[in-house]
Amino acid sequence: MASRVSKQQASVRKNEIVEVQFEDMTSDGFGVAKIDGYTLFVPYGLPNERAKVKVLKTKKNYGYGKLLEIIDESEYRTDPACPVYSRCGGCQLQHMSYEGQLLYKQKHVKDCLERIGHLKNVPVHPVIGMDDPWRYRNKSQVPVGEEAGGLIAGFYQKGTHRIIDMETCMIQAEANDTVVRVVKEIASNLGIRAYDEENHRGVIRHIIAKYGRKTDDVMVVIVTKTKDLPHKKRLIKEIAANIPNVKSIVHNVNPERTNVIFGEETNVIWGEPYIYDYIGDVKFAISARSFYQVNPIQTKVLYDKALEYAQLTGNETVIDAYCGIGTISLFLAQRAKKVYGVEIVGEAIADAKRNARLNGIENAEFFVGEAEKVIPWWYKQGIQADVIVVDPPRKGCDEALLHTIIEMKPKRVVYVSCNPATLARDLRILEDGGFKTIEVQPVDMFPQTSHVECVSQIVLK
Ligand code: SAH
């Protein structure tokens, strides 16, 4: 033991400048370098690069450094397109070409399957990327502050609560940039104050823009600390006159001292309560508070793959666990006999039911509850699924759910995941329980960021 402890000691000191070779990249997009076995994480370092790095922080087993100078540049290095990239923190991979990002994401998924899931021979396909990996987001929520007497709106500077004004976000739909810019200008001209979180005074906290890519519908949401929205009539009139395609203006009141964006009270102050969008042929109603996939173009790609992996003929009973607003359920219902969706958030289930009605889909039923409790209960009631689809949050599936799946023995499981590490862990449990992972298809839902989504086909052995 003693020799192991001494080996872990930092072989570099704080403020030391060292030359390193990056071997890998973390799931957050930090370069990983090893110095005599000691690991240094360095933001903006790319695999295979040689660089000069200043050591900023040393812990027992690892440390952090700052990139000073690149000596040998990666073939995938590129200039970030966004002028505020290094200050914002919303994107992590703009210093890497899109080709490089996709290769890195594929490798990350492969590494997780091998290291965590001990799944060596499972094919991980090349990541399906976007033709145009910019301006894909359909929802923007920006904090509002004040500078030199006027309003600013943008993002919190990385690691702080200081608001930096921003003209445009390059991964955001242009329509949303327009909303933020126009509302900021109008409110500023009307002399409306921004909320100041330090003394808990002022009015406007956040501007939220939602955009239906297929319909061109725009929703504007203004969150205030005050119950009243000052100059409401003028504000509405000018927003309606200056924002093309605005269909809905909503006022939300959040009087609390909190980082949570929305408050309890929501009032539609102009137009419709919903805007609409489509994923494939399925229509979705989007309200101020409802969840909706932020990149519907790639969501369609991901769910088409899920549908392919489900191999439905029209006779199957399908369970969609962690169904959210029922996006996958409604997609699958068009090809299945019956779909049961389960989700823990009540409002999401209300949206799922509304969306089913909106599309005239009658063979999908939705239930509120924990998947790991509801599905075992269904099983006891005699509900037997041919196909189970899971799309859990980052922490992955609850083990109780995986054990029910193992008992239920559906012919196929389709696992949609936003976290390759928990995907790998859960695939191992299914593998040990009599299932086999056939293949994994990563899809790039969030270009320029380090996130990667996967869909996997798993069959009963
Ligand atoms: N496919 C969904 C999104 C899934 S995101 C859609 O397109 O809308 C993961 C979902 O799991 C979230 O909606 C979250 O509220 C839900 N969730 C988290 N824990 C859960 C649990 N234990 N049981 C059921 N749902 C859960």
What are its keywords?
globular; 461 residues; binds S-adenosyl-L-homocysteine; seven-stranded mixed beta sheet; 11 helices; 21 strands; disordered N terminus
What does this structure look like?
The chain is of the alpha/beta class and 461 residues long. The protein has helices at 2-7, 85-88, 98-115, 174-189, 232-242, 296-310, 327-333, 346-358, 371-380, 399-408, 420-432; strands spanning 17-25, 30-35, 38-43, 50-58, 62-72, 139-147, 150-156, 163-165, 204-211, 218-224, 246-253, 265-271, 275-279, 282-286, 317-321, 338-343, 364-368, 387-390, 412-417, 435-443, 453-460. The strands form 4 sheets. The protein has a 7-stranded mixed beta sheet with strand order 8-7-6-9-10-11-12, with helices on one face. Helix 8 links the parallel strand 16 (338-343) and strand 17. It is globular. The model is unreliable at 1-7 (pLDDT under 50).
Helix percentage: 25-40%
Strand tally:
21
Structural class: alpha/beta
Estimated radius of gyration: 24 Å
- Strand fraction equals 25-35%
User: Can you tell me the overall shape?
Assistant: globular
| Strand line-up in the sheet with most strands | 8-7-6-9-10-11-12
Overall pLDDT score: 95
**Low-confidence parts:** 1-7
Give every kind of bound small molecule, once each. S-adenosyl-L-homocysteine
Sheet bearing the most strands, described?
A: 7 strands, mixed
Query: What's the end-to-end separation, in Å?
Result: 43 Å
Oligomeric state of the chains present here:
single chain
User: What is the overall number of helices?
Assistant: 11
